[in-house]
Automatic annotation (TrEMBL):
Keywords for this protein: 2Fe-2S, Dioxygenase, Iron, Iron-sulfur, Metal-binding, Oxidoreductase
Domain spans labelled Rieske: 45-151
Name of the protein in its database record: Aromatic ring-hydroxylating dioxygenase subunit alpha
Organism: Marinimicrococcus flavescens
InterPro entries, alphabetized: Rieske_2Fe-2S, Rieske_2Fe-2S_sf, Ring_hydroxy_dOase_asu_C_dom, Rng_hydr_dOase-A
Transmembrane segments: none
Keyword RNA-binding recorded: no
Pfam annotation, one family: Ring_hydroxyl_A
Cofactor: Fe cation
Record-level Gene Ontology MF annotations: 2 iron, 2 sulfur cluster binding; dioxygenase activity; iron ion binding
Alphabetical list of SUPFAM superfamilies matching this protein: Bet v1-like, ISP domain
Length: 422
């Protein structure tokens, strides 16, 4: 891919055609990836994990956002804090494992030692006038949304996080994420640009032919359907779905659950969407038989048959919340052609593996679905490298959320370029 200068990137941003995918350089260019890391991942709220990643004081979790290593830690007062995972002496990483437990944060290089609140408490052989209070760890903004953890690397993060939290907490809070526990986690590296991973997630146009396990519990009519293309039997199936949806809505209302679609996926820095939908078969969970995979229900929920809640946040996450478990997904770019997808399964904190749930049954649908999606992302990335590639039209029925993701992305790049004069 030829090197792009900023004027060429600005021209690509300005010439993007609504209703179509991005031009190839957005997926292939290292210069655009660097801009993504600076503007998208460096200035917005990024989903990185869940409070159960750090359940007790001294527990930490590390994450890499571009060139920036971050450590998230639970302090002695049970507060979740985040810091740049960089010693204030000569820059060595403080923790190198993805997760662990520490009493203090100790640099392995020269043993500078920090409290869990980031303050420096030990630094041998320094000058008499050395002021430890000026050399604490550099903080990273961190917020919890009903147990979902977001960080922002910017000095001044977008101010609209609270608006998102107020909108989404009524949906998410009943599932009790903050008090759950991690049952499984899988990191998958996809051979494609991070935007292709996100675009693939934002539609289910491909689901019927590529995700046999996932579509066991999903209704086609919940994720996109062109009514005029259906024959009589499909039209009747759509009508049956409408009746099923009404039954679920009655149950959601009876249990005090927020369920109406709330869509603010573009037009704002911290963009999001939430919607509760019926599930097929037993209607309880995204499993191979549609039944709950865990006997202990999440949070304050008292009924298994409650369908599924889906939550999307820009730029890098989606979450599926059911009565018995929650699955979170975090997307982080590694290079123009490689992307990390981190998937975490959560169950009730008192659920016992092998007694209340079988981990294979719990994780099978999304393990297989992620592998299938990874292969599709690889195919898409391979294709956009061809000189024959040109952006085709989105389906108005099944790719509306893809358009909203791409529109948000272009909005954010454009706003930055305009503000910076670059």
């Amino acid at each position: 891919m030829p090197k792009l200068d900023m004027s060429e990137i600005r021209s690509l941003v300005q010439s993007r055609q609504p209703g179509r995918p991005l031009e190839a350089p957005f997926y292939l260019s290292r210069e655009i990836l660097e801009l993504d890391l600076e503007v998208i991942f460096g200035r917005h709220w990024i989903f990185v994990g869940v409070e159960p990643d750090v359940p007790e004081p001294g527990d930490y979790a590390s994450v890499q956002i571009g060139r920036n290593p971050v450590v998230i830690v639970r302090d002695d007062d049970m507060q979740v804090r985040a810091f740049h995972n960089v010693c204030r002496h000569r820059g060595a990483r403080l923790v190198t494992e993805p997760q662990g437990t520490v009493g203090k944060l100790v640099c392995p290089y020269h043993q500078w030692t920090y409290e869990l609140d980031g303050s420096l408490i030990h630094a041998e052989h320094m000058a008499p006038d050395f002021d430890m209070s000026c050399h604490g760890l550099k903080k990273v903004h961190v917020r919890s949304l009903a147990g979902l953890l977001f960080v922002c690397l910017a000095d001044e993060p977008p101010a609209d996080f609270d608006e998102m939290a107020r909108a989404l907490e009524p949906y998410v809070a009943p599932h009790g994420i903050a008090d759950a526990r991690v049952a499984a986690r899988v990191d998958l590296v996809e051979e494609g640009n991070w935007k292709l991973t996100m675009e693939n997630n934002r539609e289910c146009y491909h689901c019927a032919t590529n995700h046999p396990e996932l579509t066991i519990s999903l209704f086609e009519y919940g994720y996109g359907f062109a009514p005029e293309s259906g024959d009589e039997s499909r039209c009747e199936a759509m009508a049956q779905y409408a009746r099923t949806e009404a039954e679920f809505e009655t149950a959601w209302e009876a249990h005090g659950l927020a369920w109406q679609e709330r869509d603010e996926l573009h037009g704002r820095p911290t963009a999001f969407r939430a919607q509760r939908l019926p599930l097929d078969r037993a209607g309880e969970s995204q499993t191979l038989d549609g039944r709950a995979a865990c006997r202990k229900l999440m949070g304050s929920l008292k009924r298994a048959k409650l369908g599924g809640l889906s939550v999307w946040t820009q730029p890098n996450s989606w979450v599926h919340l059911m009565s018995d478990h929650v699955v979170t997904f975090s997307v982080l770019p590694l290079s123009p052609e490689r992307t990390l997808l981190r998937t975490t399964w959560l169950v009730h904190q008192d659920a016992v593996e092998g007694v209340d749930y079988d981990p294979d049954n719990l994780t099978e649908v999304w393990r297989r679905t992620n592998e299938q999606d990874g292969a599709l992302v690889g195919l898409a990335h391979s294709g956009v490298q061809s000189k024959a590639y040109e952006p085709g039209p989105y389906s108005p029925y099944t790719e509306g959320l893809v358009e909203k993701f791409v529109a948000w992305y272009i909005e954010r790049l454009g706003a930055h370029l305009d503000a910076s004069g670059r």
